[in-house]
Amino acid sequence: MNESIKVGDRSMVPVGLGLWKIDRSETAYIVAKAIEIGYRHLDSAADYGNEAEVGTGIAEAISRGHCNREQLWITSKLWNTYHAKDHVRSACERSLIDLGLDYLDLYLIHFPISLEFVSFQDRYPPGWYSGEDGTEESGMKIDPVPLSETWLAMEQLVESGLVRGIGICNYNTGLLNDLMAYARIKPVMLQIEAHPYLTQDNLIRQAKDYNIAVTAFSPLGSLSYVSLDMATEHDSILQRPEVLEISNEVDRTPAQVVLKWGIQRGTAIVPKTVQLKRLEENIALFDFQLTDKHMESITSLNCNRRFNDPAVFCEDAFGKFYSIYD
Q: Which portions of the chain are predicted below pLDDT 70?
């Protein structure tokens, strides 16, 4: 990979490995292999439940001489149960311990949702349910903490040297505008769901107007959600005639075409895979270009189809309606 995007006063490679839903038994191997192949950007989170294994994979890759720490960009995320100012630092430190790192390149507020605190001793990662047992009976309980309080504690992580940059995930334009009004240390990254079915043009433009870089999670759309019954096989962007036609024209796979679209529009992307062939394909994106016509054809697929929506999955899975998107 020989391209980068600007994140604050630093540069980040635009293709990362998303670590959501990678089984713990596979994580260390996949991370080490990805770094060996050439990945230098890993997108992690406490809630993914595999940060200790991610750390093992990183340590293995470094010990084998595939990279050093400074060549890696490691992102993690603050979970919903740790939004109160007294819990932000300890949550970050727990991720650092699990990852085996002295600092994070980027730390993000995972959702603009504040849930009742769950201690490390009771359950880690805590997930969406409150209570020691983490069962449906314990419920998903909102514990409203102002986002400004959480952000102040995030700023203190930068000042303490635990993280080099801070940002947000799953914010809308209203929350972003509000954050920029009070943030002393400005966010350097906005991570959002974005793919051809959900282009989020206005939100991305607003972020860029603030000089905030954007990372698209789920850049291939529905693939990560089929196993969760949040999408079906028929929702696949990769089967669209428009994508297949471009794939034939540029002699690349449909997935490479969609991922290239994401990069060419100026966002970073963090596709997830545990298949070695796909790992290699997902970073082989810099020796071809999509034409303006190609870009327009893919963008025209937008139908504002969101797969990761708390208003849907929280109610279905955790019995609590909580909307963050209009």
A: 1-2
